[in-house]
C-alpha cells in the first residue's frame, strides 16, 4: 500500500486549517569550521518561538545524499514521493513561465541557434539574443506555425530560450533531444522511442521544417533545437489525496506551477511577503490548506550571499506572528531543500522543520536552526511524510486498523 | 526506481577521493548498567577529532533488530541493499578461503562424515579430523574426480570442512542439502527444484558416487555431505554503479572476497594496519575509492574480550592521522555491524559512523562513540545510503530533477 492509499483510507473530515510555509533552500552550512549557518546566525525570535511551542526535526527531501531540484523538493513537501512522481524538464520550464500545461500536453524546451548555409550549427545560443528579440521572433514567426491535428503553443522565456507545447491526443514524451550539444554539426531530427512518441516526433519535425523556412532570412536566430520533451505527469490531485481545499500563495511562477500541478488553487498573492500575508488573511475562510512560498532564502544562497541569506531569513521571521495570529491549527515552517551560501547551489543536507499544533509533542527546543532541529522530536524524516504529520496534527487522520 | 538507477542517473565525474574505513564489529555495549561501551572506554583522540571535524550518526546495517553476517554487513556499506542482494553460504565459504568464484560457479560447503557399512552416518564431522588430514584427503582423493561437462574444484577449509565448486554453463543453485542433520540415516541425494538446479544436482550426485568409491577404505573420512549450494550473485560492479575506481585493502580473505564480489581491485595489503596504510600511500594516485578493512574490533568482540577490543580500537585510532594526512576528500569510519564483547557475537545495534568532508554539516560532537553518534547530524540511517552520502560529499552526485 502506498502512502496515498493509506491516507485515502484513514482520512477524516475536519474544519482545521494547515499552513505550510516553505522557505526555499532554507538549510545552510557554516562558512568556517566551528562557525554558524545562515539560520543560526540570523536573529529569529519568532521562528524560535515556533520551536518552543512546537516540535522540530530535519527533513530529508528525497533520500540521504540526494540533492533535489525545486520540483522533487516541493513534491515531497506536498506529500508525493519524489522518486515516484517525476516532472520532465519541458513541463518544469512551462510551469516556470506560468504556462497552463495540462494532461494532453507535451512541453519542450526550445533554443534558438545559428545555422550556416549548410544547416550546420555555428552558435548553439544564436548569439545570445535579447529577451525582446526572443519575444519578437516567437511572436512574428513561430506563433504562426500550425500543425494539423494538434494545438501548438510557443512562449518566449529569456534570451535564446522558448517553450514549445503540443496539445493533442496520444502524444508521447519519449523523444530524444534534437540539440546535438555541439557546434559544427546539424541539429538532429526528433525521434520517438515508441508509437506515441513517434507521433510527437513527427509533429516536432514538421514544426522544425516550417520554422526553418520562416526563419531562413533571420540573422543569428535562423535555427532552433528542442530538448527535454515531457508529458504532463499523471498525478492525483492534492484535494483528492488529502481532502484539503488548498491555496497556493507564491510570487514566482515556478512555484505556482508546481502547486497547479497538484491541483491547488493559485491565488494572486502579489509580489512580496506582505502581499502574500494580506492575501492569506483575505482568503482565510475559504481554504483548509495554505502553501506559502518564500523564494529569497534560496536565491541569496545560490548567489553565495551569506549575509543576504541571513537578512532574508530575518525578513521571513518578521511575518511569522502575522501568520500565527490567524491561528492555524497546524503551522509548519520548512524548506524544499538546503541551499548553503557556501556551495552556491542546492544541496542534500537535511532541512530544518518545525510543526506547531495543539497536539504536537514539544521537544524542549528553544531555537529554530540546523543544530537545534538535529535533536528535535520529529527526528530526521523523509519530506514525503510531512503531510501525514500535518494531517494527523490537524485531526484529519483516523486510526489505522482496530 | 532503485538507488542504483538513481545514482547512475545523477553521477558526475570528479577527481575526489573517498576512504571507507570499516572497523569490523565496531559497535558495542557496556558490561554493566551505567557503564561504558568498548568505544567509549577507549582513548581515541584521533577518532574524536574526526567527530569534531565531520558529521556523525548511527548506521543500521539492514533493518532495526536485524543482525547481519559479514556479507550483508559489507554489501550495505558498499551501497547494495542487503535485502536485495544475497550471498549464498557456499559462495561466502569460497570467498572466505580466497577462492576466486565467478559467474559460472556453483559453490558448496562440504563436510566429511563417517559412514558405516550400510552407508548410515555415524559421525557428521568424521571424528573432527585435523586440518592437515583434511588437506590430505582433499588432495589425494577428491581432487582426482572429474565430471564430464563441468570443471570441478575442491579446496580444504578446516578440520572436516571443504569447499566444492562446479563451474559450467547453466548450473542452478536451488539444490537441497544432502546433509540430513542427523546421524543414524544415510546422506540424502542432491535434488534440484528447477531444471538448472537438477543439472547441478546430477553433477553433485556423480561427484558423491565417485568420492564414495575413492574414500571407501578411509577411516572416519569415508563419506561426505554437501550444504549451502549457491550460485554467484548477479551484482552490478561497484565501478559501474558509482563510477569509482576502487581498491580493497584487507588482510582477511573473506573481506577481500566480498570486495572482489563487487569488482573492486584486491590489493596485496600485507598483514597489518601498518602494511595497509603503506599500501594505501603507494596506490593513492591510482584509485578514487579505498576500502580499508580492520578485523580485530570484531574478533576481540567475538571472543568476549572487552579490554582486548578497547585496545584494538586504540590501535586503529593511532593510524587515523596517517590516513587523513593523505587528505581524502571524504573520509568515513564505520563498522559493518556491532559485535559487543558482552554478547560474544554480531548484533543488531546501530553502528557509530563518522563522515569528514569539506561540505559536510558538522554537528558539534567532540567524541566518537555510540552515545555521541546517537545525536549526530547523520541521525540513524540505513547503511545502504552511506555511499550516497559519500558520493554527495565527494561532489560526485548531481541534482535530482530540475
The side-by-side strand order for the widest beta sheet of chain A comes to 10-9-11-1-12-13-2-14
**End-to-end gap of chain A:** 17 Å
Listing every helix as H and every strand as E from the N terminus to the C terminus, the arrangement of chain A reads HEHHEEHHEEHEEHEHEHEHEHHEEHEH
Largest interface: A-B, 40 and 32 residues
Question: Assembly type of the shown chains?
Answer: homodimer
What share of the residues of chain A does DSSP label as strand, in percent?
Answer: 15-25%
The overall average pLDDT of chain A, rounded, is 96
Structural class of chain A: alpha/beta
Biggest pleated-sheet summary of chain A: 8 strands, mixed
Helical run tally of chain A: 14
Instruction: Identify the overall geometry of chain A.
Output: globular
Helical residues, percent of chain A = 25-40%
Question: How many strands of chain A?
Answer: 14
Spans of chain A of 5+ residues with little confidence (pLDDT < 50)?
A: none
Radius of gyration of chain A: 23 Å
What does this structure look like?
2 copies of one chain form a homodimer. Chain A contains 14 helices and 14 strands. Chain A has about 400 residues and is an alpha/beta fold. Chain A has an 8-stranded mixed beta sheet with strand order 10-9-11-1-12-13-2-14, with helices on both faces. In chain A, helix 5 packs across helix 9 and helix 10 packs parallel to helix 12 (about 305-325). Chain A starts with a helix and ends in a 9-residue tail after the last helix. The interface of A and B includes residues 65, 89 and 371 of A.
Amino acid at each position: 500500500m502506498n502512502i496515498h492509499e493509506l491516507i485515502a483510507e484513514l482520512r477524516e473530515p475536519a474544519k482545521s486549517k494547515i499552513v505550510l510555509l516553505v522557505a526555499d533552500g532554507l538549510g545552510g552550512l557554516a562558512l568556517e569550521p566551528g562557525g554558524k549557518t545562515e539560520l543560526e546566525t540570523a536573529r529569529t525570535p519568532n521562528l524560535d518561538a515556533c520551536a518552543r511551542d512546537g516540535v522540530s526535526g530535519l527533513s530529508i527531501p528525497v533520500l540521504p545524499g540526494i540533492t533535489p531540484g525545486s520540483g522533487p523538493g516541493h513534491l515531497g513537501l506536498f506529500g508525493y514521493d519524489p522518486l515516484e512522481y517525476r516532472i520532465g524538464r519541458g513541463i518544469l520550464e512551462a510551469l516556470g513561465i506560468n504556462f497552463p500545461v495540462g494532461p494532453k500536453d507535451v512541453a519542450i524546451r526550445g533554443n534558438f541557434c545559428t545555422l550556416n548555409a549548410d544547416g550546420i550549427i555555428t552558435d548553439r545560443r544564436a548569439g545570445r539574443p535579447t529577451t525582446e528579440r526572443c519575444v519578437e521572433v516567437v511572436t512574428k514567426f513561430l506563433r504562426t506555425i500550425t500543425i494539423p491535428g494538434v494545438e501548438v503553443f510557443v512562449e518566449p522565456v529569456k534570451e535564446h530560450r522558448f517553450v514549445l507545447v503540443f496539445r493533442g491526443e496520444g502524444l508521447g514524451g519519449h523523444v530524444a533531444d534534437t540539440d546535438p550539444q555541439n557546434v559544427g554539426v546539424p541539429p538532429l531530427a526528433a525521434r520517438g522511442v515508441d508509437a506515441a512518441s513517434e507521433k510527437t516526433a513527427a509533429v516536432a519535425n514538421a514544426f522544425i521544417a516550417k520554422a526553418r523556412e520562416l526563419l531562413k532570412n533571420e540573422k543569428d536566430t535562423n535555427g532552433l533545437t528542442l530538448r527535454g520533451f515531457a508529458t504532463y505527469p499523471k498525478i492525483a490531485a492534492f484535494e483528492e489525496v488529502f481532502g484539503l481545499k488548498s491555496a497556493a500563495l507564491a510570487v514566482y511562477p515556478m512555484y505556482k506551477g508546481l502547486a497547479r500541478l497538484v491541483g491547488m488553487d493559485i491565488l494572486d498573492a502579489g509580489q512580496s511577503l506582505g502581499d502574500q500575508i494580506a492575501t492569506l488573511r483575505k482568503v482565510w475562510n475559504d481554504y483548509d490548506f495554505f502553501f506559502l512560498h518564500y523564494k529569497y532564502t534560496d536565491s541569496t544562497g545560490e548567489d553565495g550571499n551569506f549575509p543576504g541569506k541571513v537578512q532574508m531569513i530575518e525578513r521571513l521571521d518578521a511575518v511569522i506572528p502575522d501568520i500565527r495570529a490567524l491561528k492555524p491549527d497546524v503551522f509548519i515552517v520548512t524548506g524544499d531543500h538546503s541551499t548553503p551560501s557556501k556551495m552556491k547551489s542546492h544541496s542534500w543536507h537535511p532541512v530544518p522543520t518545525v510543526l506547531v499544533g495543539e497536539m504536537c509533542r514539544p521537544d524542549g527546543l528553544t531555537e529554530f536552526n540546523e543544530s537545534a532541529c538535529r535533536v528535535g522530536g520529529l527526528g530526521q524524516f523523509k519530506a514525503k511524510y510531512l503531510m501525514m504529520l500535518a494531517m494527523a496534527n490537524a485531526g484529519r487522520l483516523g486510526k489505522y486498523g482496530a
